[in-house]
Amino acid sequence: MNVDQFDFDLPPARIALRPAAPRDAARLLVLDSDGTRDRTVADLPDALRPGDLLVFNDTRVIPAQLEGTRGAAKIGATLHKREGPRRWRAFIRNAKRLRDGDPIDFGAGVMAIASDRAEDGSFALDFAGDEPVELLLERAGRMPLPPYIAAKRPLDARDAQDYQTMFAREAGAVAAPTAALHFTPALMAALDAAGIGHATLTLHVGAGTFLPVKAADTDDHQMHAEWGRIDQATADRLNAVRRDGGRIIAVGTTSLRLIESAAGEDRVVRPFEGDTSIFITPGYRFRGIDGLLTNFHLPRSTLFMLVSALMGLDRMQAAYAHAVQSEYRFYSYGDASLLLP
């Protein structure tokens, strides 16, 4: 499909720079068979049915943004995928000043050797020393705020809390599964009281999620791989919910993509562990999920293509036009939509 079909006008003022407070006070645009309705995230127990299951991504964002030097040259690195115990693939700023074998000093006693430059301009970084890389990143790294927020204001202490979900346990993401940022203990208690369950899986979100689609046709776009895991118990639970007439509602596109990667043509979800680079565009037949709760996405992005595949391009264009006119807040710290085809 032509990528231009997924474009829309978004005023810069609609980009949220801070999350709602409390988190579940964010607005919620509900799209289902009854039409389109304006609600809040706190209303979610009334928008779902007893027996439904929400599936959250329990990945935890690491301080994956690094600033360093190679000689006199300033080098920026954004880690996006782990390739070994001490090796990360990273997108590099000022990459023209970097060659295979060059050392980068990130300060605080943190050094890495660059190698294996890829076609997308990324490098492999091998971190020196014996300390766990996680400790090195805690010393030298920063929270990797999305570029559309970082370009408008500096990172501050609030972001260390604001950019983690209440489910964050498995360290490894370089971007938050932002749909889950809306959830609070109070909302989870209300969902439980309404008979709506929840489960978790792990998909370590990579920085590739922010890369623009440069191809003119969706067939020519290459997705970056991300590592994920669904264990046997979680797969069994998802399948049991479906058998009992409940719906699987993915919280966030990361949860959705992993479930779809693990689901077969028979719509059975199986245990999964490994990389996925699934790219969902209109025409895709969903096998593992029945609905999606997600934030509002960038024009021409792979994530807007995904929601258009779920609900139809014309309907999503109309919904986003309504959201812009109604002053919904967009992107990572913005409002949410509940999509029930």
TrEMBL record:
* Quaternary structure annotation from Swiss-Prot or TrEMBL: Monomer.
Q: What keywords tag this UniProt record? A: Cytoplasm, Glycosyltransferase, Isomerase, Queuosine biosynthesis, S-adenosyl-L-methionine, Transferase
Catalyses: 7-aminomethyl-7-carbaguanosine(34) in tRNA + S-adenosyl-L-methionine = epoxyqueuosine(34) in tRNA + adenine + L-methionine + 2 H(+)
In Gene Ontology terms, what is one molecular function of this protein? S-adenosylmethionine:tRNA ribosyltransferase-isomerase activity
Localization, UniProt: Cytoplasm
A GO cellular component term found in this entry reads: cytoplasm
Q: Does the keyword S-adenosyl-L-methionine apply?
A: yes
Q: What is its EC number?
A: 2.4.99.17
Highest taxon, organism lineage: Bacteria
Q: GO terms for biological process? A: tRNA queuosine(34) biosynthetic process
This chain belongs to the protein called: S-adenosylmethionine:tRNA ribosyltransferase-isomerase
Q: Which SUPFAM superfamilies match?
A: QueA-like
Can you tell me which family this protein belongs to?
Answer: Belongs to the QueA family.
Q: What class of enzyme is it?
A: transferase
An example Pfam family from this entry, by short name, is Queuosine_synth
Which source organism?
Sphingomonas dokdonensis
Q: In which pathway does it act?
A: tRNA modification; tRNA-queuosine biosynthesis
Q: By its UniProt entry, which Gene3D superfamilies does this protein fall under?
A: QueA-like
Chain segments annotated as coiled-coil in the UniProt record: none
What is the stated purpose of this protein? Answer: Transfers and isomerizes the ribose moiety from AdoMet to the 7-aminomethyl group of 7-deazaguanine (preQ1-tRNA) to give epoxyqueuosine (oQ-tRNA).
